[in-house]
Design brief:
The protein is an alpha+beta fold and 127 residues long. It has 5 helices and 5 strands. The protein is 37% helix and 17% strand.
């Protein structure tokens, strides 16, 4: 992060998010970072998650379930939100990059990218 002072707690957040395929909420990130830095505050974790997301170092997923989820995987990919347990999953599919071209054809502005969130029931809840 250019121009931002290094922080061990911030790096611990990034390290945790890059080590998991889950898409944790801020509270879950806080619980994991506390294992390494027991004195870290919840406010510090929230501020750093916001800063990291604003700087493009992590993804913030606003899923409409009342909590933001976070992802350390910055490669283009899509997500699935379970309507029952509210977990967020990566979908194993190739990004549909040409959708930007289709959207731009009928739009006078500029399309810079897209996000796509699928909804339904995850394999665990479906059982």
């Amino acid at each position: 992060m250019a121009g931002t002072k290094f922080s061990r707690q911030r790096q611990a957040i990034v390290d945790y998010l890059c080590s998991t395929t889950e898409h944790p909420t801020a509270d879950t990130v806080y619980q994991h970072v506390r294992e390494v830095y027991p004195n870290v505050s919840l406010g510090t974790v929230y501020r750093n998650l916001s800063l990291l997301a604003d700087e493009g170092e992590i993804l913030r997923l606003t899923c409409g379930d009342g909590s933001d989820h976070f992802d350390g995987n910055l490669k283009p990919h899509y997500h699935f939100l379970c309507n029952s347990c509210k977990s967020v999953w990566d979908l194993p599919m190739e990004p549909v990059s040409h959708i930007d071209i289709i959207a731009a054809a009928g739009f006078a502005g500029t399309i810079e990218g897209h996000t796509l969130l699928f909804h339904g029931e995850c394999p665990r809840c479906k059982k």
